[in-house]
UniProtKB/TrEMBL annotation:
<keyword id="KW-0670">Pyruvate</keyword>
<keyword id="KW-0560">Oxidoreductase</keyword>
<dbReference type="GO" id="GO:0003955">
    <property type="term" value="F:NAD(P)H dehydrogenase (quinone) activity"/>
</dbReference>
<dbReference type="GO" id="GO:0016668">
    <property type="term" value="F:oxidoreductase activity, acting on a sulfur group of donors, NAD(P) as acceptor"/>
</dbReference>
<dbReference type="InterPro" id="IPR004099">
    <property type="entry name" value="Pyr_nucl-diS_OxRdtase_dimer"/>
</dbReference>
<feature type="domain" description="Pyridine nucleotide-disulphide oxidoreductase dimerisation">
    <location>
        <begin position="354"/>
        <end position="462"/>
    </location>
</feature>
<protein>
    <submittedName>
        <fullName>Pyruvate/2-oxoglutarate dehydrogenase complex dihydrolipoamide dehydrogenase (E3) component</fullName>
    </submittedName>
</protein>
<feature type="binding site">
    <location>
        <position position="218"/>
    </location>
    <ligand>
        <name>NAD(+)</name>
    </ligand>
</feature>
<feature type="binding site">
    <location>
        <position position="280"/>
    </location>
    <ligand>
        <name>NAD(+)</name>
    </ligand>
</feature>
<feature type="binding site">
    <location>
        <position position="134"/>
    </location>
    <ligand>
        <name>FAD</name>
    </ligand>
</feature>
<feature type="domain" description="FAD/NAD(P)-binding">
    <location>
        <begin position="25"/>
        <end position="334"/>
    </location>
</feature>
<dbReference type="Pfam" id="PF02852">
    <property type="entry name" value="Pyr_redox_dim"/>
</dbReference>
<keyword id="KW-0520">NAD</keyword>
<dbReference type="InterPro" id="IPR012999">
    <property type="entry name" value="Pyr_OxRdtase_I_AS"/>
</dbReference>
<dbReference type="InterPro" id="IPR001100">
    <property type="entry name" value="Pyr_nuc-diS_OxRdtase"/>
</dbReference>
<comment type="similarity">
    <text>Belongs to the class-I pyridine nucleotide-disulfide oxidoreductase family.</text>
</comment>
<dbReference type="InterPro" id="IPR036188">
    <property type="entry name" value="FAD/NAD-bd_sf"/>
</dbReference>
Length: 489
């Protein structure tokens, strides 16, 4: 009889895991804002939904982006409030800042919100949650850990992550991104921020207010995607608070070691103890094996206006689909694809009504076209720019928040864009997003009655500027009024 015993030199081959087959109506890959929005809605409407997440529920926004950044900004704002107030009769004091405690506040905020995005909540909604990354093996099949999943439709919502450019020397020095910054418990003595976009400028102001020295290095113009006039309102304040902003300074290389890092640029060398890279985002597509599914992609997944990929069974939403990289856009996309996936109805995603805000102090917000974009698209003579400054608003005067203005771009009586720089700009832009979403005329805002005194009056007063030349500077109107008054019994 043949001896089947293993000899000491034989290596036991691990048994291949048995793949578990799952068939589902919809497979959602990624549990960030877009994926969770879609999964919750689809499951509650009766679809069998499977959700994959290989990292943290809630995605970038909850864990590394919107939520922690705004929590840290709030800590900085509180510290700054103690330094100011003299004009209001309050004696300024030097705040005693615990950077570590500010970060613990950040973590408490995340922990408070996390249950809303948790696995337990979504399982309670009827969603099958699998904590694995997914990859396509063919046009109809996705593998995730020990699961092989076939779905009638797939929604890719894998989001984005920090883009780290191939700068010489960067791979040899320690640096932070938004994915690591909020775990840093020791306050930077001198924070060097590479990137003057929204993330870079928000974190720069938060840190200078919490007691760090901050230098921002930007290869082009800081806040360069916003209206230059509006951006300058913000940049002026940041410089006044002590943020050093170096523009048109492309980084050539980075050198140094932990605690002493030098960023080399044509405008000089800048040395600090902490380096934050904030130069943009890249779509998370590396793990997906998109080619196996026949899904066209470049830096992001290629989609049509209906958010469908080149594989008719697969949709892509949020950051991974390119375009605007905002949490609220991902949520909007998630709601948009509900229609075709669950009901077989056509739906297209718009971009003309999408607002965004930068949460510096003062804030910067935009919806629709900027002044330059409106002129380029419609022509200089077709665009009316309505303006109203914060320093003429009674609430802003009362609170000493008079830096800023609103601009509304109007074509044939219909707003095509609004830009706001100033206190609560991110809140005020919502009205104009509503106007653009519903294609309302400027008269709808002019007719609005805003409570007094509020910052909301800024929007109404801007809308009212549309009628100044038509009513108060019109000879015809004056003649009509004169005749009516002459003959009115």
């Amino acid at each position: 009889m043949k001896d089947t015993a293993h000899t000491p030199n034989e290596t036991l081959r691990p048994q291949e895991p048995v793949m578990q087959e799952i068939k589902t109506d919809v497979l959602v890959i990624g549990a960030g804002s877009g994926g969770l929005s879609f999964a919750a809605g689809a499951s509650q409407m009766g679809a069998d939904v499977t959700l994959l997440e290989g990292h943290k529920m809630g995605g970038d926004c909850l864990n590394f982006g919107c939520v922690p950044s705004k929590a840290l900004i709030a800590a900085g704002k509180q510290a700054q409030a103690m330094r100011t107030g003299e004009t209001l009769g309050v004696t300024p004091v030097l705040p005693k800042v615990s950077y570590a405690e500010a970060k613990r506040h950040v973590h408490r905020v995340i922990e408070t919100i996390a249950p809303v995005d948790s696995q337990e909540r979504f399982e309670g909604l009827g969603v099958r949650v699998i904590r694995e990354y997914g990859r396509f093996v063919d046009k109809e099949t996705v593998e995730a850990g020990r699961y092989r999943i076939k779905a009638r439709r797939v929604v890719i919502a894998t989001g984005s992550s920090p883009f780290v450019p191939p700068i010489p020397g960067l791979d040899e020095v320690p640096f932070e991104t938004n994915e690591t910054l909020f775990d840093l418990m020791e306050k930077p003595d001198h924070l060097i921020v590479v990137g003057g976009g929204p993330i870079g400028m928000e974190m720069a102001q938060a840190h200078v207010r919490l007691g760090s020295r901050v230098t921002v290095i930007e290869g082009a113009k800081a806040l360069g995607k916003d209206d230059p006039e509006m951006a300058e309102v913000v940049l002026k304040r940041l410089r006044k608070e002590g943020v050093e902003i170096v523009e048109e300074a492309q980084v050539s290389r980075v050198s140094g070691k932990k605690g002493t890092i030098t960023v080399h640029t044509p405008k000089g060398d800048f040395t600090g103890d902490t380096l934050l890279m904030a130069v943009g985002r890249k779509a998370n597509i590396e793990r997906l094996n998109l080619d196996a599914a026949g899904i066209k992609h470049d830096r992001a997944i290629t989609v049509g206006a209906d958010l469908r990929t080149t594989n008719r069974r697969v949709y892509a939403i949020g950051d991974v689909a390119g375009g605007f990289q905002f949490t609220h856009v991902a949520g909007y996309h998630g709601a948009t694809v509900i229609r075709p996936i669950l009901f077989g109805l056509p739906a297209k995603a718009r971009t003309d009504h999408i607002p965004w805000a930068t949460y510096t102090d003062p804030e910067l917000a935009q919806v629709g076209l900027t002044e330059a974009q409106a002129v380029e698209r419609h022509g200089k003579h077709a665009v009316e720019v309505l303006r109203f400054p914060y320093h003429e608003n009674d609430r802003a005067i009362a609170e000493g928040k008079t830096d800023g203005l609103i601009k509304v771009m109007v074509v044939k009586g219909r707003p095509v864009g609004a830009s706001i720089a100033g206190e609560k700009a991110g809140e005020l832009i919502g009205l104009w997003a509503l106007v653009l979403a519903n294609k309302l005329k400027i008269g709808a805002v002019a007719a609005m009655v805003a409570p007094y005194p509020t910052l909301g009056e800024i929007s109404k007063r801007a809308a009212g500027q549309y009628y100044v030349p038509r009513l108060f500077q019109s000879d015809m109107v004056k003649k009509v009024v004169g005749l009516v008054q002459k003959y009115l019994p």
